[in-house]
Design goal:
Order of helices and strands: EHEEH
Shape: globular
Number of strands: 3
Radius of gyration: 13 Å
Oligomer: single chain
Structural class: alpha+beta
């Protein structure tokens, strides 16, 4: 079993938007949660578990691509 975790810290609204961007993906392949931080920001934690490194990499690559696209879209809206 292989496991990998990605963490993002920032504004709560942005964190919720990023979480929404990946929730439609294969939910059984990963878990994601928003944690409140003491400084007013939130932390988005995405954890992927897979039977092999290859599968782990593929799933994490897909999730990171979705998050990057969502963040890019948010940046375009805010400009």
């Amino acid at each position: 079993m292989a496991t990998c975790e990605a963490r993002w810290i920032g504004d709560a609204n942005r964190g919720l938007a990023l979480l929404s961007a990946i929730q439609a993906d294969d939910a059984e392949m990963f878990s994601a949660e928003i944690l409140k931080r003491g400084d007013g920001d939130v932390e988005l934690v995405v954890t992927v578990s897979a039977e092999s490194i290859t599968s782990l990499q593929s799933t994490m690559d897909d999730l990171l691509a979705c998050l990057a696209a969502a963040e890019s879209g948010l940046d375009a809206i805010q400009d």
